């Protein structure tokens, strides 16, 4: 009986290692800084991470298929730039402007997915090409100049009087995509494609459509993240999202996703993104210079991923 209980406890620890990493880091941050566990700081983390969490979720669905999407950072720039231009130049309400940005993000995602599914490009190569195109398009649209927006436009998305809409939107989307992944045929098929695409094809499922749709979801969520960043800064810029693709991949891996496809969970990916957020936040609170921050952050990511690898091996031998 005792052995059964020990095995059960071990299984719980292995299956929830991402949450344990997050909880441990949260406790450490609370000890290291008196200002960490305050409502203002936690709210700032939520505001800052609403965008990156969306990018990480989009990346996850691509990773589940066995692919990778390096274009998400550049698509974020497209989302920020397009929404800002529509609001400034055409005096259109921010909601239609935001929807237009999402459509642009979807188109870039579909383009990448089509290269992968129909032209047999590797996801790395296809998304690298899209990354370059999207970043160049963002600079062309903005003429390389940040677009400043007036108050009462896009910054309504981060207004306290409106209960910080970007946090609410992000929270709702996390729930929606978690349910989609677990309970819908689309979510299960995306996972199956990453696990064994040949078997899925033999079952008569048109895998190409699912591949394109996964990249389309990534594009939409990346564009939405760009809109969120533009809302926080009241500025649309072609430099938005630089390097964000690496953070999104790191969030997926810390969350236990397999880069070979077929394994990963939305909520764990969110926890992985928040782990990265806590690392950056506590180092800022402790006034650690920016360059050493990158070194420390890198080693912490390595430690978190090694823990995932060790526990996954333990899981296979139980």
Task: Summarize the model shown.
This protein is mainly α and 318 residues long.
Structure description:
This protein has helices at 2-15, 17-32, 39-64, 72-90, 94-117, 123-142, 165-183, 185-195, 197-202, 207-233, 244-254, 266-285, 290-317; strands spanning 147-148, 235-236. It has 318 residues and is mainly α. The protein has a single domain, classed as ABC transporter involved in vitamin B12 uptake, BtuC. The longest helix has 28 residues, at 290-317. α3 crosses α8, α4 packs across α10 (207-233) and α5 runs antiparallel to α6.
Question: At CATH's second level, what is the architecture?
Answer: Orthogonal Bundle
End-to-end gap = 16 Å
Principal-axes geometry comes out as: globular
Structural class: mainly alpha
Q: Averaging pLDDT over every residue, what do you get?
A: 92
> Which band does the percent of strand residues land in?
under 5%
Q: What distinguishing features does this structure have?
A:
single chain; 318 residues; mainly alpha; ABC transporter involved in vitamin B12 uptake, BtuC; two-stranded antiparallel ribbon
Give the SSE layout.
Elements: H1 2-15, H2 17-32, H3 39-64, H4 72-90, H5 94-117, H6 123-142, E1 147-148, H7 165-183, H8 185-195, H9 197-202, H10 207-233, E2 235-236, H11 244-254, H12 266-285, H13 290-317
Antiparallel strand pairs: 1-2
